[in-house]
Amino acid sequence: MRIMTRLLILSLVVAAMPMFAQTHDWTSVGNSGRVTQPSAFKVAWVGPTLRFSSISTGDIVARYPVTNTYGSGTSKTPPWTTLWSTFKDNSASGSVTTRLYEVDKCSAAETLICTITSSDSASNQCSSCTFGSSTFDFANNTYWVEVTLSRTATSAAEEIHSLAIN
């Protein structure tokens, strides 16, 4: 009987382990966005990074759908409060802008939740913006992140490496 009890307890602990491992984060690498503007000749994908091809200037707009990963996707209201963006902006001749949007499922009305705007730096940057813990409601809305890479000179190295929400 003791062995059966111990085995039962052990099996319950093992079954609950995935629940304890849940980080409640949504993440995406830069190269997985859907490029909506412009032609494929303007963009380059290197590892997880989306960036300009060596001879291109202008804007690149990429969109990333946000999926519900909180509580194995069963909770419709994750308590997320922060959007993170990892990028490179090494020049005043360019910028990286990251925006988080909410879309009402019925009316399709879009609401901007928060924005991250880059600043010039020789190294990669990790910046964030915050919002209320009751912002997300997957029962009534969908969400997406839009990243705009802009540059006016080919010497500017504007890149998006990764995105996260937690």
Question: Could you describe the 3D structure shown?
Answer:
This protein has 166 residues and is mainly beta. The chain contains one helix and eleven strands. The strands form two sheets. Strands 1, 3, 4, 6, 9 and 11 form a six-stranded antiparallel β-sheet that branches. Strands 2-5-10-7-8 form a five-stranded antiparallel β-sheet, with no helix packed on it.
Q: Biggest sheet, open or closed, and with what strands and sense?
A: 6 strands, antiparallel
CATH homologous superfamily label: Galactose-binding domain-like
- By DSSP (H or I, 4+ residues per run), the number of helices equals 1
Structural class: mainly beta
- Please identify the top-level CATH class: Mainly Beta
Mean pLDDT: 86
- Cα(first) to Cα(last) distance is 44 Å
Shape: elongated
- The residue fraction in helices comes out at 10-25%
Radius of gyration: 20 Å
**What percent of residues are in strands?**
over 45%
Low-confidence parts: 4-22
Q: Which helices and strands occur, and which strands form pairs?
A:
Layout: H1 2-21, E1 26-29, E2 34-37, E3 43-46, E4 49-52, E5 58-66, E6 82-88, E7 94-104, E8 110-117, E9 125-130, E10 141-151, E11 159-165
Antiparallel strand pairs: 1-11, 2-5, 3-4, 4-11, 5-10, 6-9, 6-11, 7-8, 7-10
